[in-house]
């Protein structure tokens, strides 16, 4: 007698972008071992197509590209990943698209790659698995710790039942903060234009009129998207003249962008050459032993920054001495021995560097690295422009020149130090003020400035636009506020004596979601019910919220108001406290993303097997 067919177990994944695809890939890799032949239903809930999701959806402007080289993008595990599940190697974006590993393909190409990765993951789940896409939003989730979960979707009266629910939402939107509300109200009352934080690819940029001055806050990657869409996207052309210099041919349809930020300069470009030479041994000075003194919380600027700066210097000079010994006056062993004994602020350290590095252009200036416009004061906006363009050109040439490969060592030291500083904050070893101002405030921006910049040709385009007077720079510590009559926006900076006005203001940055400002209805309802809780760090007895969702690090199970992990609810993504793992990662680096995906997938499959054995 033929046994009756078994009821499938069900997983609902809210979000269908690359993080969800990574989870599907790991479910497929681990299914045979942990679930056997039990039928499996997977529901993906997202208004955007599965694979690329919202951010990488196909059909975007071909002007918008990745800021990561194609060879550093993959959704497949390889032998470097230390996880319990079997690896399943696959092509990087460069291999799939058959482009140079150092190229920066369009987001449309990336979207098509993610669509292909999604289909591969679905096929590998096997014939007894069904994957269904629901092109809508989830609005509520009900269910206790024992029974099935009920996920309510827009446009569907009956809930979607599931044994496991996974939140893989990716980038989140946020309601305006207090300042943004004021600026939006002023714009509405006086017929001004105000675009709050968000993706330029999703904004109506037609409100920025030709020739109109537009104030822009932010010089990061979001600004570069805006810049391209309102210049080349309106018919302008970049051309190389006979001298090899890039020029911009305007059409007259461009607005005039007046842009500033805290630093007053864009992020440094990606390195224009492959890493080679000898990487520095890290960490060297900023480690647990160096900071395990006393019981009182440490002040970042007083106790941590001197060691962090010394660590950055060690990474930089180690590469300078090993990659370019002809530009040093001491051997590395002698320099390392002396450098290790000297405090960062000591005159002896300064004297050592003057002796060991004869050319001042080879010396590392951490203050100038962070604030390249510090000390620059100009009377007018026009006076400031040549200086900023010069600094842009200098920075772009340096990042493209392997003679400055010591910069790779400085970057490696910052990457190493990031984890050390975050561990200090998590352990309550830093003051609350230090965590707010430095760990959550300054340090991420400094890291992005060194590591999160665009390809070099984007900065060449920015310089060409500045030379064509389509873009003007406002300087560091830029501020914006309504004028006294409220009929325009006024801006200035620490670099300028002059102030400028405009009837349009764009926030060229992505929103900063916190639990009290989320727009997603599902997350809002879960936070309100206590089914989600935000991470709060104990900093010397003072609580400091991080704004991130608490999950159990071992398997990404959501922790609720009871303090316990929920047996059948999981969350993956940068909005959790499991770490800022990206949805995709470079190959052969044992990426945290793949380790997290594998641990979550195995926990999900074990739960399904135990519930339905």
TrEMBL record:
Pfam families: NAD_binding_9 (PF13454)
Segments forming domain FAD-dependent urate hydroxylase HpyO/Asp monooxygenase CreE-like FAD/NAD(P)-binding: 12-171
Coiled-coil features, chain-numbered ranges: none
Protein name: FAD-NAD(P)-binding protein
Top-level taxon of the source organism: Bacteria
InterPro entries with a match to the protein in the record: FAD/NAD-bd_sf (IPR036188), HpyO/CreE_NAD-binding (IPR038732), L-asp_N-monooxygenase_NS-form (IPR052189)
Organism per entry: Micromonospora sagamiensis
SUPFAM superfamilies per UniProt: FAD/NAD(P)-binding domain (SSF51905)
């Amino acid at each position: 007698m033929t046994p009756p067919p078994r009821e499938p177990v069900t997983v609902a994944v809210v979000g269908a972008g690359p993080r969800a695809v990574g989870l599907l890939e790991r479910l497929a890799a681990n299914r045979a071992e942990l679930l056997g032949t039990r039928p499996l239903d997977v529901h993906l809930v997202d208004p955007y197509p599965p694979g690329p999701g919202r951010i990488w959806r196909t059909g975007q402007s071909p002007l918008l590209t990745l800021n990561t080289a194609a060879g550093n993008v993959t959704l497949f595990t390889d032998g470097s990943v230390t996880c319990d599940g079997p690896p399943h190697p696959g092509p990087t974006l460069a291999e799939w698209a058959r482009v140079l590993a150092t190229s920066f393909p369009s987001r449309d190409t990336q979207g098509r790659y993610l669509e292909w990765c999604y289909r591969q993951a679905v096929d590998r789940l096997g014939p007894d698995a069904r994957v269904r896409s629901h092109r809508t939003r989830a609005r509520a989730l009900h269910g206790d710790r024992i029974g099935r979960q009920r996920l309510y979707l827009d446009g569907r009266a009956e809930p979607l039942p599931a044994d496991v629910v996974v939140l893989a939402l990716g980038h989140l939107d946020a309601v305006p903060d207090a300042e943004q509300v004021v600026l939006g109200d002023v714009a509405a009352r006086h017929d001004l234009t105000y675009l709050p934080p968000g993706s330029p690819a999703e904004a109506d940029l037609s409100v920025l009129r030709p020739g109109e001055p537009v104030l822009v806050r932010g010089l990061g990657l979001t600004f570069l998207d805006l810049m391209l869409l309102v210049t080349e996207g309106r018919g302008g052309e970049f051309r190389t003249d006979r001298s090899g210099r890039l020029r911009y041919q305007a059409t007259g349809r461009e607005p005039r962008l007046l842009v500033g930020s805290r630093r007053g300069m864009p992020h440094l470009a990606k390195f224009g050459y492959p890493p080679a030479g000898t990487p520095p041994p890290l960490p060297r000075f900023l480690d647990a032993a160096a900071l395990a003194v006393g019981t009182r919380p440490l002040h970042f600027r007083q106790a941590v920054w001197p060691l962090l700066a010394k660590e950055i210097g060690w990474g930089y000079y180690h590469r300078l001495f090993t990659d370019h010994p002809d530009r040093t006056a001491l051997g590395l062993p002698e320099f390392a021995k002396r450098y290790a004994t000297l405090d960062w602020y000591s005159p002896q350290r300064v004297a050592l560097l003057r002796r060991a590095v004869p050319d001042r252009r080879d010396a590392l200036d951490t203050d100038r690295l962070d604030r390249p416009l510090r000390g620059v004061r100009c009377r007018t906006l026009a006076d400031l422009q040549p200086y900023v363009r010069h600094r842009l050109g200098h920075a772009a040439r340096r990042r493209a020149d392997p003679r400055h490969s010591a910069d790779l060592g400085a970057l490696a030291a910052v990457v190493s130090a990031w984890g050390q500083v975050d561990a200090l904050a998590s352990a309550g070893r830093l003051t609350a003020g230090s965590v707010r101002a430095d760990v959550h405030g300054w340090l991420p921006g400094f890291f992005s400035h060194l590591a999160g910049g665009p390809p070099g040709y984007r900065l060449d385009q920015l310089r060409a636009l500045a030379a064509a007077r389509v873009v003007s720079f406002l300087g560091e510590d830029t501020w914006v506020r309504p004028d006294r009559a409220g009929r325009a926006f006024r801006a200035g900076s620490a670099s300028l004596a002059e102030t400028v006005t405009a009837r349009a203001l764009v926030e060229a940055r992505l929103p900063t979601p916190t639990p009290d400002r989320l727009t997603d209805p599902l997350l809002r309802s879960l936070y309100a019910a206590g089914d989600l809780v935000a991470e709060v760090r104990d900093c010397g007895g003072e609580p400091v919220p991080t704004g991130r969702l608490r999950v159990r690090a071992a398997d990404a199970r959501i922790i609720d108001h009871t303090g316990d992990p929920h047996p059948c609810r999981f969350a993956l993504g940068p909005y959790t406290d499991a770490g800022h793992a990206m949805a995709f990662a470079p190959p052969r680096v044992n990426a945290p993303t793949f380790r997290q995906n594998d641990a979550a997938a195995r926990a999900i499959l074990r739960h399904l097997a135990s519930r339905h054995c």
